[in-house]
Design goal:
CATH class of the largest domain: Alpha Beta
Shape: globular
CATH topology of the largest domain: Aspartate Aminotransferase, domain 2
Largest sheet: 7 strands, mixed
Strand content: 15-25%
Distance between the termini: 33 Å
Bound molecules: pyridoxal-5'-phosphate
Oligomer: single chain
Number of strands: 16
Radius of gyration: 21 Å
């Protein structure tokens, strides 16, 4: 209680209307899938703390990597300096994904800014027409200005008049023929749009659009900040595309949800477009914590866990339970869907029932979703599914 009172005196929370919001929940410890309340109650972290904590909290393998790295080399500027963990992580990511260059930053929004700025500058320096930026209706790419412009989410309405022009198209569907005249860059969340409303769309239609973009010299940016690291089934959605995007942005699950880190991956061809006798042709962009050594060590440890066959078994287990649950719930709700380890159900008025029953969720509008850590035990999964069934009797659906 002291913590809540002290918090109310000095802290400003994200995405929160102070006037109507409930007091923040005081969490004092976390382990595995569990969050520990100051009063001793526990909650299953059913949304992986905004989708990043993929292996559960306090995983000993990541904790050990962080602690060793903190003692060895905590942080060093990345301009004109390098360090082993950043190089090791870059090499490992490039083995997993068909790219040749890794640019580090520190959150999903900055990974997007980097991709947009690189694409714009590349076009300029390659004497290509600048072209329009094209994005998907209902997209969410983050809260910085470039990311806001490419998303145009209702979250950002006060800033709409200040955002640069972007052409918005419907998320790809079979038979869609987009007019690509004058388009220079296309940015998208592949397969599923997250914060914009958990809308799943046609991957084949996306592939077709990407093919047409290639034919029209349009640079393409895949925002896999949410979908990356096994969340939707495959390690990356990009793995399923024949026509690979020119850039891919990753963050969230990269460090297993322990430390902020992001990467923008791109092709050698793009990198070469910045090599010049002119300093101004360099990519003059960077953040203080670019490639933070502790975060890179955490990401390397998280990758070890992700690539262990046990992780995939867990993801399959979660998918099996969620698929069965969705099939059961379908007749009773407006919409339910499952994609990999993501469970989606509409429409709820509030999340109190779940919190009262020890499951931490945050509704997105009136959408209930689960995106749990992959370490979830089978009995926890069974319990979550049980509470969803129960919720139909106790909460008012919209
Ligand atoms: C698809 C997508 N892109 C970008 C972001 C922004 O990431 P961050 O909150 O780390 O800036 C998010 C965050 O939810 C996201 O879901």
């Amino acid at each position: 209680m002291d913590l809540i009172k002290a918090d109310a005196e000095c802290v400003w929370h994200p995405f929160t209307q102070i006037k109507t919001a409930a007091a923040p929940i005081p969490i004092v410890r976390a382990f595995g899938s569990q969050l520990f309340h100051a009063d001793g109650r526990t909650f299953i972290d059913a949304i992986s703390s905004w989708w990043c904590n993929i292996h559960g909290h306090g995983h000993p393998h990541i904790v050990e990597a962080i602690s060793k790295q903190a003692a060895l080399l905590d942080h060093v500027l990345f301009g004109g300096v390098t360090h082993p963990e950043a190089v090791r992580l870059a090499k490992r990511l490039l083995k997993l994904l068909p790219y040749e260059r890794v640019f580090y930053s520190d959150n999903g929004s900055t990974a997007i800014e980097v991709a947009l700025k690189m694409a714009l500058q590349y076009r300029l320096q390659s004497c290509m027409p600048q072209g329009k930026i094209m994005a998907l209706k209902g997209a969410y790419h983050g809260d910085t200005f470039g990311a806001m412009a490419a998303g145009r989410s209702p979250f950002h309405e006060p800033f709409w008049p200040l955002l640069f022009d972007v052409t918005f198209i419907d998320p790809p569907y079979a038979g869609q023929e987009v007019d690509l005249t004058g388009v220079g860059i296309f940015i998208f969340e592949p397969l599923i749009q997250g914060a914009g409303g958990f809308h799943i769309y046609d991957l084949e239609a996306l592939d077709h659009l990407l093919k047409r973009c290639k034919e029209n010299n349009i640079l393409t940016i895949a925002d896999e900040v949410m979908t990356g690291f096994g969340r939707t089934g495959s390690l990356f959605v990009t793995d399923l595309l024949v026509n690979k995007p020119d850039f891919i942005c990753l963050s969230k699950g990269l460090t297993g949800g322990t430390l902020p880190l992001a990467v923008t991956l791109t092709k050698e061809r793009i990198f070469e477009g910045f090599i010049s006798d002119l300093k101004s042709h360099a990519f003059l962009h960077g953040h203080t914590y670019t490639a933070n050594a502790i975060a890179c060590a955490a990401a390397n440890a998280s990758l070890d866990l992700l690539l262990d066959p046990h992780c995939q078994k867990q993801r399959i287990l979660i998918n099996r339970h969620f698929t069965k649950l969705a099939d059961e719930m379908r007749p009773f709700v407006k919409r339910t869907a499952v994609l990999g380890t993501i469970f989606i159900m509409e429409s709820y008025k509030e999340d109190a029932f779940f919190l009262e029953n020890g499951i931490f969720v945050r509704l997105l509008g009136d959408i209930l979703y689960f995106m749990p850590p992959y370490c979830l035990k089978e009995e926890e999964l069974t319990y979550m599914c049980h509470i969803v069934r129960e919720s139909l009797d106790y909460v008012h659906l919209v």
